[in-house]
Write a structure and sequence with these properties.
Its main location: nucleus. One of its GO terms (cellular component) is nucleus. This is WRKY domain-containing protein. Helix 2 packs antiparallel against helix 3. The longest helix is centred in the N-terminal third of the chain and has 54 residues. Strands 1-5-4-3-2 form a five-stranded antiparallel sheet, with no helix packed on it. The radius of gyration is 25 Å and the shape is elongated. It is of the alpha+beta class. It is built from six helices and five strands; from the N terminus they run H-H-H-H-E-E-E-E-E-H-H. The structure holds a DNA duplex (16 and 16 nucleotides).
Length: 308
DNA sequence: CGAATTTGACCGGCGC
DNA sequence: GCGCCGGTCAAATTCG
């Protein structure tokens, strides 16, 4: 228990593709030389530093590229798995076929079962689109049941979970879009009120959002998005979980555009990074090579500890 | 003063 | 048909 605090828990996994040591190098050398030698020499070293810097930039750029490729692979695998899972699920429920049991309950409430249409708790915009296409098709098949007045966008339902301070009573989540609250209700299945929002980013945007604290964990805000934005995302290139972009390619552009972002974008960036971290974590835990390496490292550590 | 939020009333779907 | 419930409306209120 408490022994963990004193233990060295570093595992020495040989998995660090990202060597972060370089930033400290240059200034150190620069300082050394400038204090001991004259201006001319300093310039020489500066040139040297510049070339080193260029090298580092190239290296970082290629690493960035690698990461992008890795991420693409991870995403592809994720889609494939998700698709597979979907197939299995639809096969599992005989007869009814989970195509949203037409007469059951009130309209769009399957999402109340913790984001069913998306399958589980994901924040992925792209994979949702993937799923939504099929979900939409199914709904179109069933559209004879009820006239969908605005558009079949209504079928697009996604659930996103946001961490929230449990002391914070405002049911607002920062997803980059501009929302206008039009109602609030206390529902039966959850003591905390549910807030209803419309997208006010564009006047005719049909997207709606419901935000409610999770009944199980009040520190989590459950946002349910319905519909598709008919405008560009908050920063014109990326949207939130419901943004329309079909092929939301995730870019990890860490080399370019350093420090020219606006403060508001930092939030979205943070969310994006959080999402990426989740994605990477889940893909790592699903990676047998990684888990094997992890297990080996842990057992190695344990052996070492038991020896000492 | 205009925009945003709040909140009670109302509406429509669904189960009994 | 009635009552329950989720969703929406719109007048009142608050805020910047």
């Amino acid at each position: 228990m408490d022994c963990s605090s004193s233990l060295d828990i570093s595992l020495n996994l040989n998995t660090n593709a990202f060597d972060r040591s370089f930033p400290a190098k240059l200034p150190e050398e620069e300082v050394k030389v400038s204090t001991s030698a004259g201006v001319e020499r300093k310039w020489l070293v500066k040139d040297k530093s510049a070339s080193e810097l260029r090298e580092e930039l190239n290296r970082v750029y290629s690493e960035n590229k690698k990461i992008k490729e890795m991420l693409e692979t991870v995403c592809e695998k994720y889609y494939a798995l998700h698709h597979h899972l979907e197939k299995l699920q639809s096969r599992k429920s005989p007869g009814i076929d989970h195509i949203e049991q037409p007469t059951k309950k009130r309209k769009q409430d399957p999402e109340d079962f913790l984001g069913f249409p998306n399958g589980k708790t994901e924040n992925s915009s792209s994979n949702q689109d993937h799923h939504h296409q099929q979900y939409e098709q199914k709904n179109q098949l069933l559209s004879c049941k009820r006239p969908v007045t605005d558009s079949f966008n209504k079928a697009k339902v996604s659930t996103v979970y946001f961490p929230a301070d449990s002391s914070d009573t405002s049911l607002t989540v920062k997803d980059g879009y501009q929302w206008r609250k039009y109602g609030q209700k206390v529902t039966r299945d959850n003591p905390s009120p549910r807030a209803y929002f419309r997208c006010s980013f564009a006047p005719s945007c049909p997207v709606k959002k419901k935000v409610q604290r999770s009944a199980e964990d009040p520190s989590i805000l459950v946002a349910t998005y319905e519909g598709t934005h008919n405008h560009l995302g908050p920063n014109a290139s990326e949207g939130d979980a419901t943004s329309q972009g079909g092929s939301s390619t995730v870019t990890l552009d860490m080399v370019h555009h350093g420090g020219q972002r606006l403060a508001t974008e930092k939030n979205e960036r943070g969310m994006m990074q959080e999402f990426l971290v989740q994605q990477m974590a889940s893909s790592l835990t699903n990676d047998s090579n990684f888990t094997a390496a992890l297990a080996a490292a842990i057992t190695g550590r344990l052996m070492e500890q038991s020896r000492t």
